[in-house]
Predict the 3D structure of the following.
Amino acid sequence: MELRHFRYFVAVAEELSFTKAARRLHISQPPLSQHIQDLERELGAVLFDRNRGHVSLTEAGSLFLAEARIVLGQAAHAVDVAKRAGRGEVGVLRVGFTATAPFTRQFSRVVQAYRRQLPHVRLALKFSTTEPILEALRMSELDIGLIRPPTGAVLPDNITRIPVLRDRLMVALHASHPLAQSGGPVAILDLADEPFVLRPDGVGAGFYEQVYTLCNDAGFTPHVEQEANEAATILGLIAAGLGVTILPASLQAIAVNDVVWRELVTSGDTISVLYLVFRSDEGNTFQRSCFVELMQEFSETCQDAARRQTIEAKV
């Protein structure tokens, strides 16, 4: 029994005429009649009552019609899924990201736009830190990563990186702190004797390593009063008055009462770059290329808006 037998049967059942069904199927009537007879023989059941000038379904034929329509519907769906998969419109895109990425405007806008553009592609989003994301890319366990490597970090040759956000580092401190009262920038040397709330040295996100480097270049090692791994936890401890910290400006999206942000003044590099990374030696997929294009598009849009805001603020 072949799929065409289901199509031939449904056509006759719906037209209740071999002549009309043959015309609908663009075949001649004798072969159609023969195919229906072959089907009835294989099933061991009569599907149609054939009287002169009249065709009607038997009870077996009525039952078989309902099932045949389901089979044809499933077959059509399978063909559609295969075609969309071939075009890259279905499947899974695996994206790893560091803790700060979801708080950027680019991330939220790209995820929303991607889901609208490819609604049948599931985004498998996984939080991690820079080194595990790079390792997962190496092992082909991720398709794309969003990372903040330390300044000057050298990535593997087969990793393509695209800067999507140049994020300045800022000081976050309790609103009652004397350094917050002036409302002006804070020099890094003014933090030399302050208790810090930070992630342990050498662990995780690149910008934390950058913070330690900035402090060391200024002639001191930050006194870490409290350790925490997550930015939201760090800000919560700052709100509790347990110290100060240095974080990327994009984390101002985490609104915490009694925490204020101030510009950081230092001779060192205070720009932390968020990169989109993927393996260049793996075949590009439609799912991946769409995500990359959207990230580049929204990165340019957000950066243009930020530049306009800066110019307007100076006027």
